[in-house]
Amino acid sequence: MRPLACPEPGRAYNRATMLVEFHKMQGAGNDFVVLDERAAPLGLTASQLAWLADRRRGVGCDQIILIGPGDEAADAAIRFYNSDGSEAGACGNGTRCAASLLAAETGRRDVRLRGPAGPLAAEMLEDGRVRVDMGAARLDWRDIPLSGPADTLHLPLAGDPAACSMGNPHATFFVDDLDTTDIAARGAALEHDPLFPQACNIGFAQMLGPRRLRLFVWERGAGLTLACGTGACAAAVNAHRRGLAARQCLVEMPGGRLEVAWREDGHVLLAGPSVLDFAGRILVSDTAR
pTM of this prediction? Predict the structure, then answer.
C-alpha cells in the first residue's frame, strides 16, 4: 500500500501529509492498528506511530503492527510498536490478528510470518480462533535480559517473581488475590527497575487451579491492557516452572480468555480470538505528535 498524497492541500492539510489506510483489530480486548507496508514503506516516525495510537488524537490502540513483504520462508514480515512509539520484540495477540488478515486475503488456513524474534507459524482453527507458535520460551538471564546473573525462577525482587522471554521480557508475580493488588502502581514502578536494562512487562497472576489462572499485565511502553499474548505465554510457562500449573493452561484476562500450551520441545502455542473491528483511512502529517 503506497501513501496517498493529500488531494487538496489547504488549511487542514499540508504537502507532507499522507492518507494512510489501516485495519483496527483486537484479540481478547488487546487492540491494534494494522498497517500494510508490503508494497512500499510508509516511513512513519516514532512520534507519528504514537500519534496513531493515541485514543484522542489518532485511531487509538495498545500496539501498532506493520506488515512487510515476505520471502521464501515467510508469507510476510511483521513488526510491532508500542503506544509510545517504541518498538517491541514480540506481540502474541498482534501476531494472531495480522495472521487472520493474511489468511482472509489468501484463503489459506496456515500463515507463516517473520517477526523480530524469529519465525511465527499461525493456524486458523475450526472454532474461529487463531493459534500461533510463539517459538521457544527463553529462560536464561541473558535472554530476558537482566542486568546481571540471577535465577530467573526467583528474581531478587520483593514479591519473588519469575522471569521469561517470549521475544520480549516478562516478569510474573504470583499473588493470592488480584482484586486487592494495585496492578497499575506496582507495574509502573517495576517496568523500569534497574534489574531490567531494556525495561520489562510486568504480569500479576492468580492461580485458579492447575489448568487455569487469572492474569493482569502492565505492558512495557503501553501500560495496563485488557490482554497480553506474550504475557499469557510467560505466565503459563512460569507457573509450570513453579509447579503451579500443567503445561496447558487457560489464561483469563480482563478482555477475554487465551489458551497457552508449553510443548515438551520448549515451543509455546497461543490460541485465542481475533476480531476485525473496522477499517479506514486517516491523515498523518510529518508533524503528528
Answer: 0.91
